[in-house]
Amino acid sequence: MPQTFTPVFRDMVRVSTTTQGTRPLACGPAVAGFSSFADSVAVGDSFYYSVQNADKPQEREVGRGTLLSNGTISRQPVQGGLISFTSGSKTIALVTTSEWYSQVQVAVAQGGGQSSDVDTRLQLKVADPAKSRSRHLLEPGRQGFFVWDATVPVATHQADTAEGIFVAPSATAAGAWVRQIDGPVNVCWFGASPAATASVNTTAFKAALAYLQAGNNQYSWLSMTHARRLYIPAGKFQLNDVLNVHVTLIIEGDGPRSTHLKWAAGSSGFRILRINTGEYTAPGPTGSGGAADETIIRGMMLEGGAVEFDYVNYTVGNEGEFHGIELRARASIYDVVLYKWQGDGIYSLAVAGGGTAEGNANLIRMFNVTAWSCRNGAFLDGADTNACAMYGFNGFSCRQWGFWDSSFLANEWSGVHVDGNGITNLTYAHASGRLYYVLYGQEAWCAANPPSGTTASNQGWAYLKDASIPALDWVSGRAYRAGGSFCCDNANAFSTVSGYSESGQPPAQVAYPTKVDGGFYAGVKQLSTTRSYGGMMVASGSGMLGVATTGDLKAGENVFLGGNLEFTKDTARGYTGPDLCGVFRQGGALQLFGPSSASFGLALYNGGNPGLTFGATGSTIADFWGDVNLRNAGKVFKVQGTQVVGPQGAAVADAPALTSVNGANAATAPTQAEFNALVAEFNKLRIDVGAARTALNASLSRLRTHGLIAAA
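Below the sequence we write its predicted structure tokens.
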């Protein structure tokens, strides 16, 4: 006698059924999910089952079962005996048997039932739920498993204008066939197709987004339980209008070499919005919160409608403010290629507090993003596009900058690659067989003033190389713009850039205190000639190293063997003396160099002026600005362990007044005996003076040996 099994359904239980002979899905998977056996099979239906204890995988039974009228399942294991399952959640899978399928076919032949397969949505609408509460839709691109639900409100099923999820027999009555979903929503269910027109696909995409966003307006990401997913399968989909995202979604494809979205000219791609933002040309609705914050876009190519770049004449075509991804809220962008946009690949201008740029895009994240043949690969601006992180960004063949970071504070570009950017007749001018690029901030000047015609740069034009690509000669009145590798122009930003820049493009132009390191080396140019690059560091070339806005420490070239270390005057601490202009290491020695016509100081102090000042290159000590003071008592100055300067000694006392010698009174005439005694004393004195002279010469010799006095 077969034993029975009473299922206990919990949150993680999923019951899936598979009928023999069904067709595979052509546009993404659809896995049916149920909360009871009665939703999937009828009393008396036979099937194969697989039951596994989710907490104890070793408790697993595969067998043949039948749903009984009391809701239990008869169990006949295929191999071995019945498993005595312990408590815990169970995962149960059902597979209908050939007998069940045959019974359906017989019922259809006898006219007593309906097949579970329907070819079109029209057939699904007229299917009788009383005969079968489940149907399998076979319409190409829209395949899936539907279950009748008489309680679906009219407003709900009519909001799904493309019938991707709800197929209702009546537009005015409750009840609809409901697609069973266990996974992402497939845009093809709403009518999108690589074979469809741009208008049809745009309608389908908007319908899918509307379904995902309906009733899901999250004013704060803290209240989200999970983000809904929109799946875009492999293929090239034509589109002709921007797709607005108002709530947090995950929009994913099969990778940029497989999923390809192509917009017509005059349209942006995706726009990620907050609850109080609308189009860039007008303020959004009033309110607060970040409805689409934390949206993820990944695994696809987004192509715009820019005219193909003219590589013969290096001219720009139909530029406009139409961008691949517009960010008014924070989002994460992974494994995405942005190609041929009239504007920028990624564009974010966010300023909280009202106005046309209302938004907050702080904490944008990008990983493995490529921008190709756009105006700017990425453009970040505004007081609320801060602390963003871009890893592995690749900007190449962009008409202006590989990327342009103009935002307010602390963005990081790590492992970036830029190549072939800014190569157009808007950023270039040709003169006397040479090629020049525009210096940032000098665009208006360049329109009225030509390049030098030599290898020298002037106020607005910088020499790049002798012309090797087609470029138009400079023309007065033409609108020029700066462009090239990348640009960080906000002096408050403290942006960080590391990666690699290819040659052949205008160099990066950055503002103090951008930090740049890695393979950019000589490809960086400062925007201001009045301030140092405090905070800028590279290994060679024209970069600088600095640590503070007062210019405490900077490097004119580099900080390693053969490089220079330069200190500027620290007037904030009261030091107005000359600079220590250079440090050069050669053969293990540390040599100090300054300008040939000026002295420079080495300051050893805790406030006040330095103790020593050195002269021009190769000179000796020329002057003392202050004392060399051994402040602590008992300390000495030694050379190779020998004391040369130490604590002050006591002064030699004056000799007492001489009133008599050997009894002779200086006040009276000496006797002969007294005179002889006085002569003897003077002879002794002469001998003592000679000995003192010998000792003094020996001391002077030692001082000369230590270099403390000049040679004789």
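The CA atoms of residues 184 and 229 lie 5 Å apart.
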